[in-house]
Amino acid sequence: MPPALTTPPIDRRPKRLEAMRDPVVATIGLGANLGEAPATVRAAIASIGALAQTQLLCASSLYRSAPIASSGPDYVNAVVQVRTALSAPALLAELQTIELAAGRERPYRNAPRTLDLDVLLYGHAQISSRTLTVPHPRMQQRAFVLLPLSEIAPELVSAEALQAVGDQLVHREIGI
Questions:
Q1: Which domains does the chain carry?
Q2: Rounded to whole angstroms, how far apart are CA atoms 141 and 130?
């Protein structure tokens, strides 16, 4: 009688691989206001940089902002740019996996969260699907997006856009 297998058999069925594409610079917004938010955002930045076919180009400082249309503690926010060969839907799926690993739940709209990751820009693409809209539809209305974005890619944020959100309290944090 042959010995019992101790490891699962290798799946030799062909896997559907996403076609390699030219890399695109994508911009991702990060936010958290539950648990150890600064550590969660830093860990998420590292996880994004470790994604397959993706290279972390730059990350903003951490910023603190009050919740908008919600309750709970202040948010810790950041923005990163990556160069990725992942499609926009594949990138979103990977970001949602990182959110789930951080304990993300979606009990209701604008609920406090352990981690929120948003695809803000995907190259020059304009995407409108059931699951993804790019450019992010509210990014121009949010100081917690525009201030960190202006830190790492000032060419993407106009003075008029910054002035339009100037009444929103957002603070660049040092040492969090």
A1: 24-169 (3.30.70.560)
A2: 21
Least confident of 10-14, 62-66, 101-105: 10-14
**Amino acid symbol at 174:** I
At residue 20, the pLDDT reads 59
* Residues annotated catalytic, as ranges: 104, 113, 116, 118
| CB atoms inside a 10 Å sphere around CB 145 | 28
User: Percentage helix, strand, coil, to 5, in the chain?
Assistant: 30, 25, 45
Would you say 145 and 120 are in contact if contact means Cβ atoms under 8 Å apart?
yes
Helix-then-strand count for the chain, H and E: 4, 8
Q: How confident is the model at residue 176 (pLDDT cuts 50, 70, 90)?
A: low
> What is d(CA 26, CA 154) in angstroms, rounded to the nearest whole number?
15
DSSP helix/strand/coil, 121: strand
Phi, psi of 88, deg, nearest 5: -60, -45
In 102-175, alpha helices (H): 143-152, 159-164
Q: How far is CA 116 from CA 3, 12, 79, 124, 159, in A?
A: 47, 36, 11, 23, 26
